[in-house]
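Agenda item 2: protoporphyrin IX containing FE complex prediction
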Amino acid sequence: MEDTLYEQVGGLAFFEQLVDGFYDVVATDELLRPMYPEDLTESRRHLVLFLCQYWGGPTTYMDERGHPRLRMRHAPFRITKKARDGWIHAMTCALDGVRDQLNDEQYEEMMAYFTMAANQMRNV
Ligand code: HEM
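Presented output:
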């Protein structure tokens, strides 16, 4: 059986680094920052665990938070086209920060998923 993408990229440590980079940008984004809690510790943790699970790693996210149901969890937030663009921008910066740890195929797979998922989260 082929390794999961989670294993290929180095597991938890990779996703922690990616998500750190993501929230570093969110922290400076005037539109996105107010949507998140003041303390980003739990937000970071949830996104790390979700991504680990999504890419074939441990299912800790599900064990702790239940079924992701991401659209429903995002319903309380006004996710406009601009918010979506900001989110994709933050994630693109984060991916650029770990670009040297990914081959082209892995990079493109992640980029494609994030773009698709961010489009699905738009609710305004
Ligand atoms: C499109 C723009 C998006 C915006 C503005 C947005 C915003 C937010 C906000 C404000 C939270 C709450 C944070 C908290 O309570 O700590 C959140 C949670 C979360 N978001 Fe997003 N999000 C977006 C897209 C995405 C996408 C594309 C994904 C997945 C690829 C994602 C995954 C998550 C996860 C896993 C959580 C934690 C859910 C939980 O267990 O409570 N988000 N998001």
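Discussion summary: Helices lie at 5-8, 12-26, 41-54, 60-65, 70-74, 81-97, 104-121.
Owner for follow-up: CH.
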